[in-house]
């Protein structure tokens, strides 16, 4: 059975934590790609082609999840994420467009 | 004679450095206040009411300057900053509005 990992409530998403999460180029690339995917797309954490170790990748997704940028769910032996597009657009209008527009992240 | 401190060229402003600079609440408060001032306003570094030591304040303004968020100039015994509004709006549309809208920074 899929198991959701804890995240933050929509009204607790903190701009400082979001900006800090997005300051890292690997994490920004994940959000950039998710912004440009179809709304609601679920992606495997391994699908972004991040050139980092498994533990570093896990760390990056933990930071993104705890900042409120993604929902993460474990499905058997893989972990999947979705962008919290609605929550983020409601709270910080323009932020996702800004990240999605960046070229060559 | 006023002495400008070094900054980065407009086309070298890096989104990662900007987001990292803005992740800190003191630095975000400075930019928040500058965004909501009149365009081109020059403000003393001491005018933002940051509750930090002088050396910490100097550090924060150095980070903002090196990220390309402000221009800084020394005028005798005080240091003044202006927001690089045009450069930032051209490069990252929507970013300054996002920071300027945040309440209770």
Automatic annotation (TrEMBL), chains A, B:
CDD domains reported for this sequence: HTH_ARSR
- Does this UniProt record's set of keywords contain Lyase? no
Q: Which key words are in the record?
A: DNA-binding, Transcription, Transcription regulation
> What GO annotations for molecular function exist for this entry?
DNA binding; DNA-binding transcription factor activity
Q: Which SMART domains match?
A: HTH_ARSR
Residues in HTH arsR-type domain copies: 7-103
| Family matches, as Gene3D superfamilies | Winged helix-like DNA-binding domain superfamily/Winged helix DNA-binding domain (1.10.10.10)
Q: Which domain of life is it from?
A: Bacteria
What protein does this entry describe? Helix-turn-helix transcriptional regulator
